[in-house]
Amino acid sequence: MAVSFGSLKPVQLFDTLDILGEGTTLLVACLWLGLIISSRPAGPVTEWLYYGSLLLMYSYFLDLLDEFIRYPDTLRLMSWLESLPAPVGMLLLTYGLVGWHREQRSIDRQLRGRELFLRDHHLIDPLTQLYGADYLHAVLGREIALHRSQHKPLSLLLLDIDDFAGFNRRCGIAAGDNYLGQLSELLSSQLRHSDVICRYSGDRFVAVLPDTSDVQAQIMRQHLQQHLSMLCKDDNQPQLTLVCSSVSQSSAAAALQAALNAVTTARRQHAPLTVQNA
């Protein structure tokens, strides 16, 4: 389209320095876009970063094209197309970076909370960097004691990956490990810093939600469901079962068993990303 609006400049009018500078800027924008696509999990923050980088790349491309093509002075369209996407792209990128910063702060709080509460590294799952079942039982037992003595509300979220072993057989162990990493990162970024997220078993994650009533847990479940549904868009990805449980039991084992029973009930009427209140 740009070529049809203008004419190619003579070679002697090419400005090598401008071409080098603008070409480098375009290349950097392309690299940003590639890094976002390859390293970010799916979600709203990634979309803001993606579209912001795309608009910048488009603007820089037209800016570079301007070094090779001369447009009539009366044609303002190309000038607008060259100028307008850049500030819009910068705004989208800024909004996305703010969201990314919030995610990282949430993940950092999770890491600091783990370090302050217990420095026993054998309790950490090496793959997801979340605490495992032993830590979950210890924390849940402590929270149940507080719940019973101080009458504070307590809830659980349990996320179960359906037929994870089958997914590993179809796609390979590396793909399975990558999927678990995406899930742990999503959970750490979307839940509160006061919540304790653990990998309960190979295909299950449990979040302990202190001072959280059933209504609040329902809201958190719906919020988490929206983000998790993005991981289930691909037919090749395993389906997820998410249950929300208000804790009324007197022991950690009983509370976890109640949540596991809710998973079993949810699977009987299974649909993609089943969500049920236990």
From TrEMBL:
Please state what class of enzyme this protein is. transferase
Keywords, in A-Z order: Membrane, Transmembrane, Transmembrane helix
User: Reaction catalysed by this chain?
Assistant: 2 GTP = 3',3'-c-di-GMP + 2 diphosphate
| Ranges that cross the membrane | 19-36, 48-65, 77-100
Location of the GGDEF domain: 152-278
Q: Which organism is it from?
A: Rheinheimera aquimaris
Q: What is its EC number?
A: 2.7.7.65
Question: Superkingdom, according to UniProt?
Answer: Bacteria
From the Swiss-Prot or TrEMBL record, give the protein name. Answer: diguanylate cyclase
